[in-house]
Amino acid sequence: MDMYAEKLEMLIDGEWVQGGAGVTGALFNPANGDEIARVPHANVEDLDRALQSADKAFKSWKTTAAVHRWEVLSKAADLLEARIGEIATTLTLENGKSLAEACGEVQFCAEATRWYAEEGKRAYGRIIPARSGDVRQLVLREPVGPALGFAAWNFPAGNVTLKIAAALAAGCSIIVKPSDETPGTAVAVARCFQEAGVPPGTLNVVFGPPAPISEHLIGSSIPRKVSLTGSTPVGKLLQRLASDSLKRCTMELGGHAPVIVFNDANLENALDALVTAKYRNAGQVCTSPTRFYIHESIYEKFIAGFVTRSQQIIVGNGLDAGTAMGPLITSRRLDLMDEYVADAVSKGAKVALGGERLDRKGNFFAATVLRDVADQARVMTEEPFGPLAQITSFRQFDEVVERANSLPFGLAAYVFTTNLATASNMGEALEAGVVGINHTSVHEAETPFGGVNQSGYGAESGAEGLEAYLRTKMITEKRV
Ligand code: NAD
Questions:
Q1: Site residues for ligand 1, CB cut-off 6 Å
Q2: Are residues 228 and 293 in the same domain?
Q3: Domain holding 330: CATH number?
Q4: Which of 84, 286, 434, 440 has the smallest C-beta neighbourhood within 10 Å, fewest atoms?
């Protein structure tokens, strides 16, 4: 309890406030179930104040010189970097992931903010040659307007930073509704931006029950843009709300990443990369490798290597030195893991490792390897969001492409092969927004990240991430 240092407040019109709906939401440490804080909730008046201030602030922030916005964002990046240790500790206490992972996430936030700061200076328009000599045709890139950001708890710093930095770099104001499961991290991130000089109202942060808050904020005519990092069902809901006033959306939604390992793959390299990626944030990652399709000729060898490496994953409190994997975010998710394992086993799968919750305080589930998993098992079609690796075999290229592409999701996909033709054919054949070939690092500050199909649309980071907060205006000007 005493280690949880962040003071939970909401940021409205440049002031840190407790909000009118009371400090009601209990916050628990997933590693031991202890209550660590109470979360302030916004009432309708707070939300309206946030909306009004975002509207007012947008009018001046959009005309602020890009080079000044760069200065502010660069300072925010420096502050994020200087506070890595304290932000990461708050993050681990709320989310459970290992401190090393949390530090890496905050470092990513600093890099992404710096990258957006630079990119904001390059929101170039263009001049299109006109059909007559006395006409000039200008294409301007303008900030789209006040934005709304809704973010999931699995990357409590990254998910909010990507929205804040992109919106501010483009010249938009933004109201962020972070997950109530990880509020302190969002507050700590927002303090960096505010202290860097983001003017009052340009960045607002509110907490509270997601459904009424999103209905009220999206129902307002002030915001012109909605960006969500969350599950597919919530994405559909928010898009429906946004349609009434035709707000633009960026939807970063769930995934169910196939991994295809061919018999010519460098197996040791594949195993090292995949085991690390699988247990990152206890599998609660939208790009987590989840459906393992292994060529039948290397199937047994792959499973043996995966199990051996998984046995070495130290599960524990993320703050303890040596912990590789922390708890799941809530006990509800443990029940779901139990259901997935039982269902897979009832359809023919065998538990090669783990398969059960750990007998200790906190939401801990064992690193789990399931083999011979039927394509019809629930865990092969529903996003597992937990430390489960479900493995099956394949024989042929076309067959595995069809199986990999059989779900409505399309976020990440991974291929391991040393054959150049297989690599490029696979890269093109897979229905995914990001494809990792022979490694799993599919998201950097400078590369576009986003899904296709029911994993959403639009991208964060990369030039596309800034684009999401810009609109186009064409001015045609005749000399008279
Ligand atoms: P979620 O969709 O339940 O919640 C995400 C956000 O939406 C939170 O801020 C939450 O408060 C809000 N929300 C929840 N219910 C809402 C409602 N009824 N109305 C309005 N807002 C609501 O997702 P989660 O369980 O918190 O996070 C996990 C999901 O996020 C997974 O599906 C994961 O794949 C996805 N995710 C996607 C990406 C990506 O970039 N594609 C990244 C991380 C997580």
A1: 150-155, 177, 179, 210-211, 214, 229-231, 234, 237-238, 252-255, 286, 383, 385, 411, 451, 456
A2: no
A3: 3.40.309.10
A4: 84
| Probe target for ligand 1 pocket from 160, 234, 251, with the most ligand atoms within 8 Å of CB | 234
- Give the domain extent around 181: 10-253+455-476
Q: Mark whether 299 and 374 lie in a shared domain.
A: yes
Any domain includes 372: yes
- 205 and 298 belong to one structural domain: no
Residues whose CB is less than 8 angstroms from the CB of residue 437 and which lie 6 or more positions away in sequence, other chains included: 414, 415, 416, 417, 423, 426, 427
In a mutational test of the pocket of ligand 1, which residue from 180, 213, 238, 286 has the highest number of ligand atoms less than 8 Å from its CB? 286
The pLDDT value recorded for residue 254 is: 96
Shared-domain flag, residues 363 and 471: no
Vertex 212: Cα angle to 210 and 218 (nearest 5): 90
**Residue 94 is assigned to a structural domain of this protein:** yes
CB atoms within 10 A of CB 72: 21
Residue nearest to atom 19 of ligand 1 (CA): 211
Residue 105 counted as domain residue: yes
The pTM for the full model equals 0.97
44 and 180 together in one domain: yes
Number of Cβ atoms within 10 Å of the Cβ of 356? 13
Task: State the distance from the centre of ligand 1 to the C-alpha of 211, rounded, in angstroms.
Answer: 12
Q: Does residue 399 lie in a domain region?
A: yes
Asked if residue 165 and residue 109 are part of one domain, the reply reads: yes
- Give the per-residue pLDDT at 21: 86
Q: Based on the structure, what is the number of domains in the chain?
A: 2
Residue-wise pLDDT for 287-317, tens only, equals: 999 999 999 999 999 999 999 999 999 999 9
Residues of the chain with pLDDT under 50: 1-2
Do 288 and 333 fall into the same domain? yes
Helix (H) or strand (E) holding 233: helix 232-243
Report the half-sphere exposure of 220 (CA within 13 A, side-chain side): 25
Give 14 Cα–ligand 1 centroid separation in angstroms: 26
CATH number at 152 reads 3.40.605.10
Q: Measure the CA–CA gap between 304 and 223, rounded to whole angstroms.
A: 53
Per DSSP, the three-state class of 193 is helix
DSSP state string for 5-19: -PPP-EEETTEEE--
DSSP 314: P
Residues classed as catalytic: 252, 286
Residue closest via CA to ligand 1's atom 22 equals 210
